């Protein structure tokens, strides 16, 4: 009947018809203060203290109760947005009182007052928000209440939920235009920034991931593996440290199995551990060819980069959820598959064991066994990531980027030429 800006939207005759024919059949009437006062005036209800300025929460309640008693709706909600109140005494705030630096006791609030059968009164209080993003708030509130009622909620519950919805809509509004703009109706909805099932693809194509991922996959150490020019002593040192890394990597995947809640995910994590064991056999065989025994490998101290990386992954596993652990494991799991795929297609790669000592290493990470491990790990991530909020996805991306930087540090333990 009266907009937030004060414009009367219904002619007098229409208000009279509503009052005479509809209100007595109404479940809930939701006037703002100007509308409530107009209803009283149009129906000849001249209670001076209510027709004049409403100055307190008690007067808001009296306004709602009078409309209910005299006009017949089962419930009446008088919206208090036009009458900001001081939280300390619930009386009308003066101009300028909405200063956000006020102490808590002097904060300005809005109180929506609901009155109903058998004297029931519900007061919904929220912080006052000085904003121009209030166009359509009344319609939005009524629609939200209707939606909650349709879900089977009672009137007080539906009203409270709808008031919270509108308050959040004002708070998060995009502030469009130069006048009174709309609130944000979509504050509790979000869309994934990727199509379900394609998070890994989205992740590796993100602008903040691409540079560090490219540095990892195309690192000089990697390229030297491909063309066979990596110093043998560097490879020996790397393969020993990678064996020690895989011990901790197996522990982390075992921790993932422990954190899993169903037998399928437990089995998949254990299968990845099986892939790791077979990968470690490759390392042992390489070292045997260099005259290094398994006992010597195990007796070798971890270098700082190895310890830092593996303990970071384990710390994520201990302190966060299963998905975060899987993301922390992903740079290694996905990265070695990507390295093998890149080197297999690169024109400078020497694809002959006689000419390139490291070609069997490349083949291992391009083999069906490892490709299957990557698929299993990716599936575990894709399954859970679809339920994450955008904010959580950003947190997980940061874990992935940090883990990828740790991988780069692993390459850099030994010289590439």
Automatic annotation (TrEMBL):
The keyword Membrane does not apply. The keyword Transcription does not apply. Gene3D superfamilies: 3.40.1190.20, Heme oxygenase-like (1.20.910.10). GO terms for cellular component: cytosol. Residues 1-184 form the Pyridoxamine kinase/Phosphomethylpyrimidine kinase domain. CDD domains: TenA_C_ScTHI20-like. Keywords: Kinase, Transferase. Transmembrane segments: none annotated. One of its GO terms (molecular function) is hydroxymethylpyrimidine kinase activity. It holds the Pfam family TENA_THI-4. It comes from the Eukaryota. Residues 207-413 form the Thiaminase-2/PQQC domain. One of its GO terms (biological process) is thiamine biosynthetic process. This is Phosphomethylpyrimidine kinase. It comes from Beauveria bassiana (strain ARSEF 2860).
